[in-house]
Design goal:
Layout (H helix, E strand, L loop, with lengths): L1 H17 L1 H4 L6 H9 L20 E4 L2 E3 L2 H11 L6 E5 L5 H7 L4 E6 L2 H14 L4 E5 L12 E6 L8 H6 E13 L2 E10 L5 E9 L11
Parallel strand pairs: 3-4, 3-6, 4-5, 6-7
Antiparallel strand pairs: 1-2, 7-8, 8-9
Helix pairs in contact: 1-4
């Protein structure tokens, strides 16, 4: 198992090096690396895909959804630049793997899943594995989770056609949001949104990606 995990981390580091000119990240943050080591990805994939649990690629988890490629999980987490006392909102719980990674790096994770069956499975998984700083609910992530806002970081794991205004409003000044933006499987860009202390936004495209579509998205 350790060899498989180390091989995966080596592949992630290799991708960091390959994409460094686009992302501005030439190495995996040691804190993110430690989180990847601490979270057993094989506990978050369906039994039929256990042999591929440490493959550096996405895997189906049912209901038309996927668990993201580990490199993308690492990069999106890295781009948030989390601190231990931060509170994070995740849109798109899926299997719960990304939320579990985040839970190692911040004080509290709130995560919303559009598909109730996936939300229920993720809740059970978090309880079983002892991740007690994650709160999960089924719902429409487009509206965020206003009762727990503002958030130091927001991460969206499905491609939106635009950045939801509610999520911008719920991002704390000084906070960061990472969200894939674009059409379904076409011309998507992983996008970094930074809000300064005066509430002004800086938006930058990071990397071309391919995510499942944002479910429950409202038209502009």
């Amino acid at each position: 198992m350790k060899k498989k995990i180390q091989h995966l981390l080596d592949e992630i580091e290799s991708e960091y090096n390959y994409t460094r000119r686009m992302t501005g990240k030439d190495r995996l943050d040691p804190k993110v690396k430690a989180a990847l080591l601490a979270i057993p990805r094989d506990k978050f994939v369906p039994k039929t895909y256990l042999d591929s649990a440490f493959y550096n690629g996405p895997l189906p988890i049912g209901h038309g959804q996927t668990i993201s490629q580990p490199y993308i999980v690492a990069l999106m987490t890295d781009l948030l630049e989390l601190e231990k006392d931060d509170t994070v909102l995740e849109i798109g719980t899926g299997s719960g793997y990304q939320a579990a990674i985040l839970s190692q790096l911040c004080k509290q994770v709130y995560t919303i899943e559009y598909v109730p069956a996936l939300a229920d499975m993720a809740k059970t998984r978090f309880e079983k594995l002892g991740y007690d700083n994650i709160e999960c609910k089924a719902g429409n992530g487009y509206d965020g989770w206003p009762e727990h806002a503002p958030f130091d970081g927001i991460i969206v794991t499905a491609a939106a056609t635009h950045i939801p205004e509610a999520l911008i409003e719920q991002l704390k000044p000084g906070g960061r949001m990472v969200i894939p933006v674009g059409q379904q499987y076409l011309s998507q860009e992983l996008t970094l949104v930074e809000k300064d202390e005066d509430g002004e936004l800086s938006i930058r495209d990071i990397l071309g990606v391919a995510f499942v579509p944002f479910q429950g998205e409202h038209p502009v």
